[in-house]
Amino acid sequence: GQFGSSQFGPCKEARARSDGQLPSEPWTRPFEQSRAMQKYRKVMKPRENMVQDDDEIRVTSAGSVSAYISRAAKLFNEMDKSSVKITATGNALTKAVASAEVIKRRFKGLHQITALSSLEVVDEYEPIEEGLDPVSETRNLPTMVITLSKEALDTKDPGYQEPLDESLVEEVDPEDMMKARGRGKGRGRGAGGRGKGEGKSNGKGKGKGKDYGAAW
């Protein structure tokens, strides 16, 4: 049959593979690799303190889109920047794209260039059992830089996108934008909170919330 085609027979073949007499089947290799990695622990490296440029919006997978929109408003309005650069790596790429799309719908006439590349990262592992050597694994992280500029950019660039039609842009006052960012945070009155004194129906409670909808 399909699984017993070797001279060992189905059961003996599996034993021969585990003994190293036959190479592992492709579907068993991930399990064998994960089992082998249980004998190692990852070496934690100190984070590099990367200096952020004045016009940069560095997006992380844990950050909030509303915070990046407010950062763009500060750069364009308060710091009078003509362009911003949204940077992201790995799992944060999707959030960077979402942030750029919202920013383009809040500020008129933004030209866009998107550049993709990769960053080589080396992970090191040390053995937790004697007799084993340290191992390392090299992986490539996707990186993205999205430039949004009030001034014209290179239209021949493969990643160029022209400004959105102004009918699709709804500009928001910077003060309203900051108020919207703070909405839903802090203390408020509502059901289920703790009340002080007797006979009071409205108690004080702590509530946290995120507002990505009408505010942006």
Question: Can you describe this structure in just a few lines?
Answer:
This protein has 216 residues and is an alpha+beta fold. It has helices at 10-18, 29-37, 65-78, 93-104, 174-182; strands at 40-42, 56-58, 83-89, 111-127, 135-149, 160-161, 187-194, 204-206.
Which helices and strands appear, and what pairs or packs with what?
Layout: H1 10-18, H2 29-37, E1 40-42, E2 56-58, H3 65-78, E3 83-89, H4 93-104, E4 111-127, E5 135-149, E6 160-161, H5 174-182, E7 187-194, E8 204-206
User: Low-confidence segments, ≥5 residues, pLDDT <50?
Assistant: 1-10, 186-216
Radius of gyration: 27 Å
Q: What integer is the average pLDDT?
A: 75
Helical proportion, percent range: 10-25%
**Based on CA inertia axes, which overall geometry fits?**
elongated
Question: How far is it from the N-terminal to the C-terminal residue, by CA?
Answer: 61 Å
- Portion of residues in beta strands equals 25-35%
| Largest sheet properties | 6 strands, mixed
